[in-house]
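Pasting two entries for a bug report.
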Amino acid sequence: MMRPGVIHERQKEVPMGALPNSQCLSSLGTSATRRVLCVLLAVALAATMTILPSGKAVAATTTLKVPVTYGQTEARSMLKMINDFRASNAQCWNETNTALVTYSGLQPLTYDYALEQVAMLRAAEIAVYYDHKRPNGESCFTAFEGLPLRGWGENIAAGTGTMGSRDAMFMAWREDNEKYAGQGHRRNMLNSRFAAVGIGYVRCNGIGYWVQNFGDVNSNAPATTADNGKHLVEVEVDQAILGNRKLTAASSSLSLQAGASKALPALSLQVPVRGNWPSGVLGLDTSGAKWTSSKPSVAAISKGKVVAKTAGTAQLKATLDGATTTVTVKVAPPTPALSSVKGAAKKLTVKWQKQTKSVSGYEVWVSTSKKFTAKTTVKKTVVKSKSSLTVSKLKAKKTYYVKVRTYYKDPATKKVINSSWSKVKSAKTK
């Protein structure tokens, strides 16, 4: 059983041109390990790679709009941690794990804002597909194209909870207690050939995704203000790693009264992604969803709200990126108000405000109980053309409580929809 925060990794050596001792380290682990990682409250994954760029991918791709929150202030503060580490005469194991190699006299890395742009894009990309291969199938180093570099390096990491924080990610990348095979991130941060770094950090679906991108020279791109806002990042993805999108609404049904309006239910759009960490499912932006109503005369859609027009039932359909979901809207008729309740000899005369729209009739309940219990209540149905009722054969000198509501019989569904009850009035018989 793995302890919280333990990183399970697998290494593969890859030859490199300009930079020596290249490492390609992934953190896929065994299926049992992945199950443990998904259960833990605080976990971390990490990987490192330094190789030459490869060619463009040729797979069929699609573009996803991935909702992320930038964390550039926190990411940039890691530069000092890296440079302090480079100045500490840190050691790494040699390839045979027989001796420690001291890294001394290293120059501090400068911050490269062009590399940072690459790192921010890569952070959004690993939120989709956790690998040094980009979601579209290309090498991660195709993202560096256009920069004046001869050597590149990348560390990636992801963590939930506190394991997604800056300090936890940096300590994971240090790999203090690992042997040579597990110190690829460490050697990247201590590599004497690297002169510059850009650091990316985003949060997506509650997970922190981190990227360190290294270069052998600084591009001297102008400094930018730290961005900690929410963004929709367009990520190109190989269609072969995507499953079918699923669109769901926060509520599958809504109930309104005629004349009222209510905000449309929140939507969730999820797509299975092979290679996504940790859940294998990515949540996407839903702001572009299109809503339609099966009966605009019953329930119309306007400015993000459903507007109840007349009593009845309608289906609202949301469509986005080929996925759909439906919400049933039940519109109740208007609630009438009692005008008066007057007592006479063993009878009551009840009057209410007549409703002319969305009404099939009225229900009037008369009871000696404020709770309108079954044994104490007389129930009457009145046609919609009337607005008064005399209830006879009541007890003399008894206080009665009265309430009224409208009902509507939907001709399409044959079901009855009731309004809410009016306020209760009372009167005493003679």
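Entry 2 (this is the one that rendered wrong in the viewer):
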Amino acid sequence: MSEKNTQWYEVRQSHNLGYRLMFFALRVFPAPLMRLLAYAVGFFYWLFDKKTRRVSRLYLSKVGKRSTLKHICSFALNLVENVQTWAGKFSVTDLNFRDDDVQDLLSHVKAKEGTLVIISHLGNAQMMKGLAILGENGIEQKMEVTTISNENISGGFNSMLSEVNPDSSINHVSSDNIGPETIFYLQEQLEKGNLVVIAGDRVSAHSDRTIEIDFLGEKARFPYGVFLLISLLNVPTYFINGMRHKDICLNPKYDMCVKKNPLDFNCGRKEREERIRQTARHYAENLEKLCKAHPYQWYNFFDFWS
């Protein structure tokens, strides 16, 4: 009998104690030593977590790779990078701004024009948010960031983050029930010139409405609500990923990959629905391209195609 397919919101995330310990360890030990320890932790999980190996193998088969150990160790390294960022131990000098749409994004930020950022669980999203909030973004100013996430999954991490680093203040909006009041609040934040951040690669725990898209050779479901939100807010929107140059490395450098959504929503209702779906396809195509370039940096450890 096959194992039951589990969605991301059914997976208990219990990294908070590990995060807390790493925050304090980084005050004593150098970051390269913490990364070295991450490989040992990754090996432990690879050895004993059969389900994670199974879903890793499923994903890797779609990008022509096989090493589930390398995949899980890459994720362990990502956890250290998260802590390193929020602990203020990461610098923009370790980041390469690619020749893509980054200058267009920065022009809006410098002009304090609200922008919407769609992230994913490919690469390091926490690094992108941390650099923005802590002023390590290359434009000599801190950014106000509002992030939309599932409170049941990320609430504990957010509370712990505020506790260990009060300078990392960030506005949190629960994705559980986004209604007219939430939209109004987000519009206010954008009018102030702030960033609004949401992930586009996980379906909602509270809505069955999805957009089915060809992704890595098979149909996958993407959250309709995220792309509907893009249409309702109708501000410049960017798909952003922070990617390690090498999947496994003790002293990594990173690329900031920025892709602007080419569509706006100054159109009629019928056309808007088509543009919502086109935007979702643009997002999925960009994500697929980066998955193929950095196959071991995809951290959705559940059956994405179920």
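Dev reply: Rendering is fixed now. As a check, the viewer should reflect this: The chain is about 45% helix and 15% strand.
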